[in-house]
Amino acid sequence: MKNRLRVLRAEREWSQAELAGHLEVSRQAVNAIETGKHDPSLPLAFRIARLFDMPIEDIFDDSVP
Amino acid sequence: MFSSQHAPTQTDLSRYYWLMWLGFAAHIAALLWYFAHGPQRLPPLFLALSIGVLLNGAMQLKADDYYRQLCSMGLRTCVGSIAVYLLCFTAVGIYELGYSAGSYIGSGGNPTSIETTIPTALRDAYLIALLAGFAFYLGYFASLLRDRMGTNVE
């Protein structure tokens, strides 16, 4: 699933490790989500949305597989 | 930001990933040792490392989403290889049963004893367990390496 995580992270000038720290996941997980290799679980998707203060659908795009 | 009292730290979560490499290396060492010396002399250190990592992969305590996804692939590969092994075993069993029945009828009802064609090593539960564990690691790392291709770490 495509997402805007890399862009949102870059806007805040966070490294993958810093974002991972905010979300309480590993850096590897952030990397896999950013590259679209891994779709986050619903709880993690909500955590991401809360962290960036945006609706989930503005971060993740499920129209493109 | 979302921290709870018992939440794993970033270091804890990253540790799972490199521990998997350590477990994989220990498992390969245990397999090589098995083929060289047999099951009696397997070094406890290799086994303890590999078993610990496999148990962690099965239970996934305090692991993150992505680690669970990789372990899920490992578990699927493990279960799939066990199914293939059982299928092959069953096919050989059916062949031997048919051959045995044919020999009995062909010999005019005289009972004949037939040796199984399955090699002894493939009936060794210890080796099967080691190979099933190896299949778990293969599934995990195949999935990890596939994901890592063309990705940038920052």
TrEMBL record, chain A:
This is Helix-turn-helix domain-containing protein. It comes from the Bacteria. The keyword Protein transport does not apply. GO terms for molecular function: DNA binding. PANTHER family: DNA-BIDING PHAGE PROTEIN, TRACRIPTIONAL REGULATORY PROTEIN-RELATED-RELATED. Keywords: DNA-binding. It holds the Pfam family HTH_3. The keyword DNA-binding applies. The lineage of its organism: Bacteria, Pseudomonadati, Pseudomonadota, Alphaproteobacteria, Sphingomonadales. InterPro entries: Cro/C1-type_HTH (IPR001387), Lambda_DNA-bd_dom_sf (IPR010982). Residues 5-59 form the HTH cro/C1-type domain.
From TrEMBL, chain B:
The chain crosses the membrane at residues 16-36, 42-61, 73-95, 125-145. Keywords: Membrane, Transmembrane, Transmembrane helix. This is Uncharacterized protein. It comes from Qipengyuania vulgaris.
